[in-house]
Every structure is written in structure tokens, then in C-alpha cells.
Specification:
Length: 413
């Protein structure tokens, strides 16, 4: 179990999550931590919610980096070869001990991945054992990568393009033969065409308006939701999620209001609207929005901000709206009936809500120094902040599983 951990998604050619790379704050260079002789990390983590590997990877494959010394000593017995890919960071020259350790790892049933930053292919002697090669496409010119790829394809390995930050890069390296893509290209607008929201989405905008209002008109919300059987069904699935509601079966919006209260219902109405605003985007975009929403909501509570309307939740939930709708954020927030403080933060303004988003992004990129710096600026304890983010990950995983059966697969060019 781990208290200080982050993850980065690895998507396939259809922009579905294939795996997450796990990044450990306690480990050297974000590698799997070796705490055999170190009680300090355990003392730090004792009061922080810990996550298992399945929790952080949301039941997907987990790529985990290991230092040479850890590999030579042997992998932890708790790791499952069915769900973990063992990654060797920049192997360089390979001695006999490392080669034998990698053979043992393969015999245990693990897949083996290597970072090949210099595209030296088999200069380290590991390629016959390797299942996956990761290439940092930001470090090399396209022409150089294109020249080296045939040799890797002939070696019958899967290829992961790292540091993919634009849609054009995704398409370029997909066409070049890469299988998987790591980077936040999917969280940016593919184009910025502008324009009006489709008429079919206006009811969702009405829901956002109701969720963002200080007042609560249940009759108006009922009327909107009852027009769409799909919305009604999904709202009840959200509210009856075991992580949120373990005791009562909720059968209507009015019943939910009685049991959960106005503020919590507003959050789920906003979430429901966001999940249905777009039809052809990666599910990971919604998932990131969920985690950010819960995290920013928790930070707002820590800072004792008012929660009606739930502005912390809203700023996290709508922080990727430009990528979801391929429209400039400044234009979108003018069309969306959300409070001014949220609009200001979403458009790059500097306030506490903007710091919440900065902190969420620091966790997503495992920029631990920035996590510390922003936590200090907010006058929040780092251990507490880590615990809040871990809680947000668990909550986001649970809600994602509720949404997934009803969320269409993205259209990929």
C-alpha cells in the first residue's frame, strides 16, 4: 500500500486507457521505493490514506519503474505478473547480473519494458527479453525515429511513444507504427472552432445552471431530467453507487434530496451534465475531470469555503471543458451559467481555485516539488493533501465505473 503515488495514463490507438505508469514520490526518480532500511517513509505515510496498486491503476495494467538494485535483489512478492509491467529506466550497459535478473522476471510471467532514450535498440543486450520499448518522441527528431522504428518492429515488441503532447503527434506516431501513447495530448482541444453548443445539449446547460445556483429548484430539475430517460437512469446509478450510498436504495430525485442533501445533489447533477455534454472524447478526460472535481471540492472544504453552490467541485469538474468541447475556455465559460470565481480560475486568473487546479496538475505530472510549493501557498499540510488526492482517485475510479457502460467510445481519425 502506498501513500505518495501518482499515475499517468497510457492510451491505445483508439484513445482508450491501456495502462497507467505509476510514479512513487518515495522512490529514486519515481521508481518503486525500496524501504527495507527506511522507516521515515512509513512514519510520513502513517496518517495518510494509502492506495493499493489496483486502486491507483483502476484495474488496468500498471507500468512500474525499478532501479537496478531492486531488480538484482528480486521483485516484491506482492506484485502480480498479470497486471504489472516491469519497466527498466534507461538500462545503458548491461552486466551479467542484470541480464539474469531480467530472465528471472520473464520466467515469473512479467512483461518487461525498457526506456530506450538514445534509440540504441540492442546496445544493452536486453531486447530479446523485452516485450515493450518506450521512446521519448520529444527527445528525437521524427526522421531519426522513423529510421530506427523498422528494427524495433522486426524485434516483435510493442512500442510506446512518450511525451506525446499534441493531437498531431498522436496521429504522426500512430501512423509510424506505435501501439501506445503516453502524454496529455488528449486533454487539449483538437481544434478551436468556437460556435454555439448543439441544441441537443441545451438541457444539459440548464442542469449546470441549476447546479451552480445558490437556490435549488427541484421541480425545474425534475422536469429537465424526466425529458430524457437516459439522464434519469444515469443519475440514479450515480447516486446508488456503493462508494457514495451504502445504506439506501434511492428511487427518485426527491428521495435523493431527502437522503443526501441539496449540495451533494448539485454535484451529481453537474457531473451528469458534463458526462453527457460530449459524445466522442476519451473516457480518460471525464475520469480526470472527476478526480479533479473531488480533489478541488475537498480542498475547498479544508479552506472552509462555502459549499453552496459547490464551487470547488465545479472548478475541478469543468477544468477540461475546452478539451471536451474543442472550444476556447473563455468562450465556453461565457456560455455556461457558472459563478464568477470559477470562471476566473478556469480562464487563467489567479485565485485560490486556480491554485487548486495547479495542485491537481502537479499530482497528475508527479511534480512533487510543485505539490509542496502549492500546498505551502495554500497553507495546507502536505500529508493531508496527499490523502485528499488519494481519496479523489478512489472516488473517481468508482464513478468512472458507473459511467463507462453508458459512455460511447471516441471517434479516432
Amino acid at each position: 500500500m502506498f501513500a505518495f503515488i501518482a499515475r499517468q495514463p497510457i492510451l491505445d490507438g483508439e484513445k482508450e486507457v491501456y495502462a497507467y505508469e505509476l510514479l512513487f514520490r518515495d522512490g529514486v526518480a519515481n521508481c518503486y521505493p525500496d524501504h527495507a532500511d527506511d522507516d521515515k517513509a512509513e512514519r510520513m505515510a502513517r496518517e495518510t490514506l494509502k492506495l493499493g496498486l489496483d486502486d491507483i491503476s483502476c484495474q488496468k495494467t500498471a507500468f512500474i519503474n525499478f532501479q537496478r538494485d531492486t531488480l538484482l535483489k528480486g521483485l516484491p512478492a506482492t506484485l502480480d505478473p498479470q497486471t504489472v509491467v516491469v519497466e527498466i529506466e534507461e538500462p545503458g550497459t548491461t552486466n551479467h547480473g542484470l541480464l539474469e535478473a531480467c530472465k528471472q522476471i520473464k520466467n515469473m510471467g512479467f512483461q518487461l519494458a525498457i526506456d530506450d532514450p538514445m534509440l540504441e535498440q540492442d546496445a544493452h543486450g536486453l531486447l530479446p527479453l523485452v516485450d515493450i520499448v518506450k521512446v521519448d518522441v520529444g527527445q528525437h527528431k521524427h526522421q531519426h525515429i522513423a529510421q530506427k522504428i523498422p528494427g524495433l518492429l522486426n524485434a516483435n515488441v510493442k512500442l510506446v511513444a512518450e511525451e506525446v503532447e499534441t493531437q498531431q503527434q498522436f496521429l504522426t506516431y500512430k501512423n509510424l507504427g506505435f501501439d501506445y501513447f503516453q502524454g496529455y495530448f488528449f486533454s487539449k482541444p483538437e481544434s478551436l472552432a468556437g460556435g454555439q453548443l448543439p441544441t441537443s445539449k441545451l438541457a444539459l446547460v440548464q442542469l449546470i445552471s441549476e447546479a451552480s445556483s445558490r437556490s435549488f429548484n427541484i421541480d425545474s430539475i425534475n422536469e429537465i431530467i424526466e425529458r430524457d430517460v437516459g439522464l434519469s437512469y444515469m443519475l440514479l446509478r450515480f447516486i446508488n453507487n456503493p462508494l457514495i450510498n451504502k445504506r439506501y436504495k434511492i428511487t427518485s430525485l426527491r428521495h435523493a434530496l431527502t437522503y443526501m442533501g441539496e449540495v451533494e445533489i448539485k454535484k451529481f447533477i453537474a457531473l451528469l451534465a458534463l458526462a453527457n455534454l460530449t459524445d466522442d472524447k476519451p473516457m480518460e478526460l471525464i475520469h480526470m475531470s472527476l478526480v479533479r472535481a473531488r480533489f478541488c471540492d475537498s480542498l475547498a472544504k479544508e479552506k472552509a469555503f462555502g459549499d453552496n453552490p459547490p464551487t470547488g467541485f465545479m472548478v475541478g469538474l469543468f477544468s477540461l471543458l475546452d478539451a471536451l468541447l474543442d472550444q476556447p475556455m473563455k468562450e465556453l465559460v461565457e456560455k455556461m451559467p457558472i459563478v464568477d470565481e470559477v470562471k476566473f480560475a478556469l480562464c487563467g486568473g489567479q485565485n485560490d481555485f486556480a491554485l487548486f487546479l495547479l495542485l491537481a496538475r502537479a499530482f497528475e505530472s508527479a511534480t512533487w516539488l510543485k505539490v509542496k510549493r502549492v500546498s505551502d501557498a495554500l497553507q495546507l499540510d502536505q500529508k493531508r493533501v496527499h490523502g485528499l488526492f488519494n481519496e479523489a482517485v478512489l472516488w473517481g475510479n468508482s464513478v468512472r465505473q458507473t459511467i463507462s457502460p453508458h459512455f460511447p467510445k471516441p471517434h479516432v481519425q
